[in-house]
Design goal:
Length: 495
């Protein structure tokens, strides 16, 4: 049986950054993820914004972490070799309710120390973003907003944890947790691990994990959302993240000029019953389209190349109903970061961490790592910790002379597999051989960007399946698109 000081459950953004920051201490760490790859949950389906922090109540942990994280985000991404676009944001509104909200957020931003925050006249908004509807009445600008590719960030943090000595165990689902003399026995099917402490980052399932050792306190009630992505052809339509404060109390629109030059639109807010319902809804997509018509009417929606769905992990305190014995939620959801500490053994849970969880992933990772080290007691720092993770070679970031040199050394970098994004065979092989490497078509996509262009993988998927099969030593018919069973090729005579 393997023994660890700390086990992190869940390999989304929060688990990856918890593992990375635990390596700042002399601890034996394992990250357990039930799926075949990292960042396949909420960390794969969000708005990809680094928030500057004016939206949160000043003085709260959330506001403090967010403002600090945004101001240090460029440095974090440089450390982890991750691309970051510090494009700034403008919030726009079209009437008196919106204007009042913007002024309130401006005051909050000043109080929280958001740098460079200012209100913009309609003329100033239109100068910066000429495609916004001329009906705009007020703008709120901040320079410290940006956008990042969430899974690129999470995978980089996990690679950095692994380089510093953490074990990352994929296909390892925690099925039970039993308190033991020295901490816990963590059961994952037929495998058992012993650990002194646990950090629970199981995303949508974090409450279920906590309930394996304690009675219910917080539960997650999911809601859904939809997104649209526009091709790079429409990329120049906006240059800042655009937030929209509507006149009615419903959800406004968000538009993001992504790191790769697309425009991401969304999310809508739709009801869902199931926690794993990452599907789109016609209703949500139609709402997005009608909001676009209000905020930025000339946006060419004919360039939509993809839509996708998300699930929000809305946390609520729960109490036991004395008559039915069932746990029922309080009327209002929890808006603060929910970080629960269970006693007597060290067990920390991050439950229902919504926006700005991506922005604050590293801050939250530091917070729980420091707290866990304190709970374990007398844990020395790790002087060998290296926060830098070497970035993968990205052909598109190189000059023509640099590309020629790379291709001369390894001709596979001269063989373009994904024509839309110009991703080479060399980069795809590297994404499979890196640790933890890609084992699925979507795993390659998350690491290289292949298949995210205009044709959405129509041309390259077949080639990527072949490369994966060759590298992993299996048949192309055994390669999944994403999760277990999502085969792309049928075996002869099979299903
Ligand atoms: C719609 C939406 C938009 C958002 N937009 C932004 C944004 O623009 N900016 C921002 O800062 N934040 C944003 N956020 C917040 C941010 O995306 C989340 O805080 C973050 O992704 C949460 O990551 P996670 O690691 O908790 O969850 P996940 O990414 O879901 O990871 C949890 C992992 O735990 C694993 N797991 C579950 N059960 C087990 C088990 N029993 N054993 C092993 N593994 C298990 C799952 O497989 C999964 O991989 C958004 C959130 C939502 C919902």
């Amino acid at each position: 049986m393997s023994c660890y000081d700390v086990i992190v459950i869940g390999g989304g953004l929060l688990g990856c950054f918890a593992a990375r920051n635990l390596m700042r201490y002399k601890l034996k760490i394992a990250l357990l993820e039930r799926r075949e790859d990292l960042c396949t949950g909420i960390s794969r389906a969000n708005t990809a914004i680094v928030y500057s922090g004016y939206d949160m109540k000043p003085g709260t942990l959330k506001a403090k972490m967010c403002v600090k994280a945004a101001q240090e985000f460029s440095a974090l991404c440089a450390e982890l070799g991750v691309r970051y676009s510090p494009c700034g944001s403008i919030m726009v509104c079209f009437g008196p309710r919106g204007a009042q909200m913007l002024r309130q957020k401006y005051e909050q931003g000043l109080e929280s120390g958001v740098r460079g925050i200012k209100l913009l006249t309609p003329q100033e908004v239109l100068q910066l973003e000429p495609n916004i509807s001329p009906q705009v009445v007020l703008g709120l600008y901040t320079p410290d907003t940006g956008t990042v590719i969430p899974w690129e960030l999470g995978i980089a943090a996990a690679e950095n944890a692994l380089q510093n000595g953490a074990d990352i165990l994929l296909n390892t689902e925690v099925t039970d947790i039993v308190p033991s003399e020295n901490g816990f026995k963590v059961h994952c099917g037929s495998q058992t691990f012993e650990t002194r402490g646990i950090i629970n980052c199981a995303g949508l399932l974090a409450a279920e994990i906590l309930e394996k050792v304690s009675s219910p306190k917080v539960r997650i009630f999911p809601s859904g959302g939809d997104y649209l992505i526009l091709d790079t052809k429409a990329g120049g339509y906006i240059s800042h993240v655009i937030f929209h404060e509507p006149e009615h109390k419903d959800k406004g629109l968000t538009l993001v000029p992504t790191v790769d030059g697309n425009i991401l639109i969304g999310p809508s807010e739709v009801p869902v019953e199931e926690k794993n319902f990452f599907a789109t809804t016609g209703e949500g997509l139609a709402t997005l389209r009608s909001l676009v018509a209000e905020v930025i009417p000339s946006l060419p929606l004919e360039h939509v190349i993809r839509s996708f769905g998300t699930v929000r992990p809305n946390p609520y305190w729960v109490h036991q109903d004395p008559l039915s014995g069932r746990y029922v939620p309080e009327d209002k959801g929890i808006s603060s970061f929910t970080i629960l500490e269970s006693t007597p053994r060290p067990f920390l849970s991050l439950i229902g961490i919504k926006t700005p969880g991506l922005t604050c992933a590293n801050e939250l990772g530091i917070y729980v790592a420091d707290k866990m080290a304190a709970l374990l007691g007398k844990v020395p720092p790790n002087p060998a910790f290296n926060p830098r993770r070497p970035a993968p070679l990205r052909l598109n970031d190189l000059s023509w002379t640099e590309r020629a040199k790379v291709i001369k050394e390894n001709p596979l970098y001269g063989k373009i597999v994904c024509r839309c994004r110009k991703i080479s065979e060399g980069e795809i092989i590297d994404s499979i051989r890196r640790q933890p490497g890609a084992v699925t078509v979507d795993g390659v996509k998350r690491r290289t960007g292949s298949g995210t262009g205009r044709c959405q993988g129509s041309f390259c998927t077949q080639r990527i399946i072949e490369i994966l099969a060759r590298e992993l030593g299996c048949s192309p018919a055994e390669i999944y698109k994403d999760s277990k069973g999502s085969y792309l090729i049928c075996k002869e005579g099979g299903s």
